[in-house]
Automatic annotation (TrEMBL):
Superkingdom, natural source: Bacteria
Keywords associated with the record: Transcription, Transcription regulation
Keyword match Ribosomal protein: no
Protein name, as recorded: ANTAR domain-containing response regulator
Coiled-coil region: none
Segments forming domain ANTAR: 183-244
Originating organism: Actinomadura sediminis
Ribonucleoprotein listed as a keyword: no
SMART domains assigned to the protein according to its UniProt record, in alphabetical order: ANTAR
Region (Disordered): 57-79
Length: 250
């Protein structure tokens, strides 16, 4: 084992596993835990930040065409306040390595930002906070894109071969957010279906009341309800609730 290897202790393994618990925290909470774990466990990493992004529209092009899309950050968190400020300033500007990573869907970084000519604004922010190298990587899960940025305080401290744990953290974190989103979508759909079933039941009850009161069949009762709904600008369900609630249709 080389000095740069990370030992996956029982405690670290437990904390990584906890990232996968759906609903345990918000997106920001998950990103913050990923960033903290990366800063603590990834060799050469002095700080980290994570951002969740709205998936860009590709219009059939992958990676998306920069002129036709603009990456939109949805949530962000960092392991340290200085790193959070670096991230927030870049997101506010709307350009920099984070945006290039999302647009191109490939990692970007620098072994020594003191001689880095790209992204001058972002590099100046990092240098003022003692950062000398960084690497930002994307991870795409179902309906979720997450970027994880690792920061080092000495040049070349985040070289190749040291990012396996960071990739694991990013994969687990993005999977959690994806699963949470899918759970929320399913729950929302279930609620909507339940509301639709309840609304249908009220409408059917109202139809039965009108059939008895007017001496008509179901189609005629429903047609009368629609006529009243349209002429009085009242939703059909609200009208049905009034009828069932013995409030009449006047």
């Amino acid at each position: 084992m080389t000095p740069t290897d990370t030992v996956l202790t029982d405690q670290l393994a437990l904390e990584i596993a906890r990232l996968g618990v759906v609903g345990e925290s918000s997106d920001v909470g998950t990103l913050h835990r990923v960033a903290e774990l990366a800063a603590r466990a990834v060799p050469g990493c002095a700080g980290a930040s994570g951002v969740r992004w709205a998936l860009p529209r590709t219009n059939g092009v992958d990676p998306p065409v920069p002129e036709e899309t603009r990456p939109e950050p949805l949530a962000a968190a960092a392991s340290h306040p200085d790193i959070a400020e670096v991230t927030d300033r870049q997101l506010a500007r709307g350009h920099g390595p984070l945006f290039d990573v999302v647009t191109e869907r490939r990692p970007h970084g620098s072994d020594d930002i003191l001689v880095e000519s790209r992204w001058p604004d972002a590099m100046a922010d990092m240098l003022r906070r003692g950062v000398r190298c960084f690497i930002t990587s994307p991870h795409l899960n179902v309906n979720v894109m997450v970027t994880l940025t690792l920061y080092g305080v000495t040049p070349k401290s985040l070289g190749p071969g040291r990012h396996a744990l960071a990739s694991l953290l990013m994969a687990q974190g993005s999977a959690t957010m994806s699963n949470t989103q899918q759970y929320d979508d399913v729950h929302r759909t279930a609620v909507q279906l339940q509301e639709a079933v309840e609304a249908r039941a009220v409408v059917d009850q109202a139809k039965g009341i009108l059939m008895h009161a007017l001496g008509c069949d179901a189609d005629e009762a429903f047609a009368e309800m629609r006529r009243i709904s349209q002429t009085r600008h009242v939703k059909l369900t609200a009208l049905a609730q009034r009828i069932v609630g013995d409030q009449g249709i006047t």
